Every structure is written in structure tokens, then in C-alpha cells.
Amino acid sequence: xxxxxxxxxxxxxxxxxxxxxxxxxxxxxxxxxxxxxxxxxxxxxxxxxxxxxxxxxxxxxxxxxxxxxxxxxxxxxxxxxxxxxxxxxxxxxxxxxxxxxxxxxxxxxxxxxxxxxxxxxxxxxxxxxxxxxxxxxxxxxxxxxxxxxxxxxxxxxxxxxxxxxxxxxxxxxxxxxxxxxxxxxxxxxxxxx
Length: 193
Prior knowledge:
Pfam families: TetR_C_13 (PF16925), TetR_N (PF00440). Keywords: DNA-binding, Transcription, Transcription regulation. This protein is an all-alpha fold. The protein folds into two domains: about 1-50, Orthogonal Bundle (Arc Repressor Mutant, subunit A), CATH 1.10.10.60; about 60-190, Tetracycline Repressor, domain 2 (Orthogonal Bundle), CATH 1.10.357.10. The protein is about 80% helix and about 0% strand. The protein is built from ten helices and no strands. The protein has helices at about 5-25, 30-40, 40-50, 50-75, 80-95, 105-115, 120-140, 145-165, 170-185, 190. The longest helix is centred in the middle third of the chain and has 26 residues, at about 50-75. The protein starts with a helix and ends with a helix. The model has no long low-confidence stretch (mean pLDDT about 95).
């Protein structure tokens, strides 16, 4: 097959895998289901992805790029360092209101595979560390203490889990309010605005 067809088929399989894994869970979606939904033969599926683990890794890489884009777009919307930090929680609120929201794919994947698949656990940890590092950059731009980044990351992570369990976006608002309190306490209410 030509490379362009390989790329298109690969993208189609990844999109279907992403959708099915996110909506149903990784362990409940077998390669037979995936091949049927993607419209490829099992042989072709394994030519593109030698194992289910390699396919899950690729899905996580795609999700990481999507997450990074959402965070950067949110951050870019803020006009002050404080607003850039709080924009992350506004982005979470919009995401939580999406009809297909099922929580954080990284947390979900870690829950399913983290104990049995070290490479997947490593990818999840890298993603979460990268998010915390990005928050640390934003906190530093605001002149805040390093510990604030960890606190803000925990609020965002907790909001994702709470929203998935509760089925509402209210957790984003609560996390945003708590983040405002933390930011203002760390920076001083007058200098932060």
C-alpha cells in the first residue's frame, strides 16, 4: 500500500481506538472489535500496530497533543499571569460539559493498565509531570512559589476525577474558586490582579 494510504488507515484506526477506549474502556475493547469498527483486517491492524499496548501508547500520544493544545489555547486567552493560571480551570469547565466527557483518559488508562503495563504507567506519569511543569512555568511568570504549581495541579486532577464521577461540570468551578484562593494567598491579593 502507498504511504498515504498507510497514514490514512493508521489515523482511522487511532481515531476509532481513541473513541472506543475512552467510551468503553481499554480492556473491554478487543482487537476484533477494533478491526470491525475501523473496517480493517486483523492482519492489517497488526501490521500497523504490532500489539494492543503499542496502539494504546499511540492513542495516549495523540491525547497528550490534544491536551497540550487545549491548555495552551486557554493560557493564551489570559491577559495577566493570574488570568492565565485560572484559564486552565475555565478550559476544564468547557471540557466537562462535553457530551462524551468520561474523565481523564490518562487517569482512566492508569487505572486499567498502570499496575500491569509499566510503559503505559510511565507515559501517564510523564504526561502528568509535563502538565505540572507547565503550571510551574505559569506560576513562575506570576512570581509565585514553586509549591503553588503542585497545589494547582492537584486541583485540576481532582476536578477531572470528580467531574467524571459526578457527571457534572461543577467541580471545575469549585477548583477554579480554590485556585483563586491559593493564587491570591501566594501572590498577595492586590499584586496578583
